[in-house]
Amino acid sequence: FIYAKDRKSRFLWANSLTAHAMGVETPDELQGKTDLDFYTPELGKKFYADEQKLFESGESLLNIEERLIDQTTEEETWISTSKVLMRNEEGDVTGMVGIGLDVTEQKRVGRRNEQQAEIIRNAKIMIGATTPEGQALFMNQHGLDLFGYSTLEEIAGKLILEFHTQNEH
What letter would DSSP give residue 91? Predict the structure, then answer.
């Protein structure tokens, strides 16, 4: 998404992807309007307030993740947004340029990875990983309990054979 807004957060221009995400056919349909014209009052007010803080602070925002509802599909999306101030020749802030990258899929993959990691950590079987030489890299809680350890740090670098030998005595 690429767009520019004036100090009152009204769209000056936008690309077609921004227009589509806002639920309109062409970028021209955004001109002169604010997020309040497209999003719920709660979300529109939040975006407006965020942009006004940007104008007041005089500092750009980089890579801020924002949750949106796509106005066409009504699905939750996550956008990594950067907003850079536009200034006139005297240095006064006249507006801003925003760039957004859809990071929804990365968020979903991250959530799935977290869920899988949680399953592995809490499995009622021993799950672990070693180097090719047999040194412990990871062991879930069940495995740690079996060998009498409480933290991963205690097993780091130990040979799995050492666990077996220590627990036979």
Answer: S
